[in-house]
Amino acid sequence: MLLLSYLLIFLFGASLASGLLVCAQRLPERQSILAPRSRCANCHHPLSWWQLLPLLSYPSLKGRCYYCQSAIPRICFFAEISGGLISVSLWAAAKSAEQLIFTSCLFSGLFLFSLIDIQHQVLLPILFWPWLLLLASLKAPQLYYITAIVTGLIFAAFAYCSKGLGSGDVELLAGLALLANVDVINYLLIACLLALVSFPIFQQHKIAFIPYLSLAVWWWEIGSKLCF
């Protein structure tokens, strides 16, 4: 029964990730997430329902469009797998319904921001601020406003004097400082380490830092507790 529960949670997470990927692709372009139907980015042919099944469509199509045989971006399959694994980890680590609700909102937002950053290198205020206010309302008794303000000012000054971080990265770090107090320093250290380790592999000229920061938050808050 436990295995079945985890399987259902994994499938739910993969489906949610697939929907968030559509949002990440369309919202920065100011397109509706409801219409038109998903289509191939190369030949623009509308996709059938069976070509949109999370986890199944990518391997069944061998990573290529059914109509024009152009390669389907790997991020589509990777996002679905990641979404499923994250959902299972949140469920396994949750000690209460309140904690599960908070972490689900936290990582759904971070997941969406990561996908947008990978594809567009931007953090949309119309998504970020409602997300931050929602999390703040869920964790209001534990907010550390003074630390948040000081940390935010430090990162803002760093961004002004250096080109190392984008404005979206600074906003997200300041928001996490508001929610997590001193833990944001640990997030930043882990994220920088991950970025340095992965740089020789991916050789990015522009680093999308939000995915590294999101992974750091996940490891500090969820992964390390499950492993240790």
From TrEMBL:
GO terms for biological process: signal peptide processing. It is found in: Cell membrane. One of its GO terms (cellular component) is plasma membrane. Residues 11-91 form the Prepilin peptidase A24 N-terminal domain. Pfam families: A24_N_bact (PF06750), Peptidase_A24 (PF01478). GO terms for molecular function: aspartic-type endopeptidase activity. Belongs to the peptidase A24 family. This is Type IV leader peptidase (Type II secretion system). It comes from Loigolactobacillus rennini DSM 20253.
